[in-house]
Amino acid sequence: MNTFAFIIHILTLLSTALMAGLFFSYSFSVNSGLGQLNDSAYLLAMQSINRAILNPVFFMCFFGTVILLPLNAYLQYDGRLTINFSLFGLSAAFYVIGLFGITILGNVPLNDALEAFDIGNASQETISGMRETFEGPWNKWHSIRTAAVVISFLLLSIASVLPKR
Known about the structure:
By secondary structure, this protein is mainly α. The protein is 85% helix and 0% strand.
């Protein structure tokens, strides 16, 4: 493996691990804590989190991994359809479709609807309805994308340590 391919491989492992850790941790800590809040506090907290996560470090890892995983698979290709190359490709597919695609098509529209919701001028009934409309679907999509990024990292890790075949 040449130096460029090695650097891309290490950056791919790092960025995928960071994303898997972020989504996994959110699923099993933040979501549990948020779920215990009353409706108004829950919606305000989610609005705040959705704004805070839109930062350069998150964008670099989130979008960078979309580029790095397929690039890494391509750089690992040696002209043969090997188990390693197949695992690298599957890892990329799980991330691009399962994390990135679901985020863009599932979670972002829900986040946008929540951002547009004026909690300060809403009745308690409307606030409760918004939480019901938001929380279940958002958590469902989040669980799917969390599984996808963890699988992506697992496949990438296995391909990284398997002898080339």
